[in-house]
Design a protein that fits this description.
globular, 3-stranded antiparallel sheet, alpha+beta, signal, 9 strands, 4 helices, ARB-07466-like C-terminal domain-containing protein, ARB_07466-like_C
Amino acid sequence: MKFLAIASLLLLSATAHAAVNDRCSTSGTPGVCISTANCASGGGKSTAGFCPNDPDDIRCCTKTTCDGGDGIPTIPTNKCQSHVVTNGYIILNQFPHKIHTVWCYANKPGDHGTGTALDLMVGNRNPIGQTIAEWTMENHGRLKVKYIIWGQRIWNVEVEGTPRPWAQWRRMDDRGDDTANHWYV
């Protein structure tokens, strides 16, 4: 089983070149360019005009930051594997009021396309991201975590094996911006 605990944030403003599954932002709220149907089924709100190069039914999907006032955002369950949701809530409950938005399924190749990845969003380059990433790594066994990406570094249980401090994680190539470089846990 795969489970991506820490990946990227959706805090960058939309650009004129946004594409399906690209990051977008409306009024400072992070989002992703997905179909209005997928957005609604995941509990999000669709806003037109922030994914300009996409078909009409692709809009910037955003979610409220917290559910029920407990500081724990809701994990969208549509096409997200049940063990990912369950273990995601373990992480969220460990860090209340620190993670403001969570994404799981995206209609694209890879772990998001199989509902086995989570993006846990905190502020841009917020040091709490490193804390969350390292805590998740230390608990990777019980959480069924395969790999963690934070701050242009990756830790993969199949490659590195044993947990180590974030500064010792493998560096990733520069992908061009903070979102692609995973500075947004």
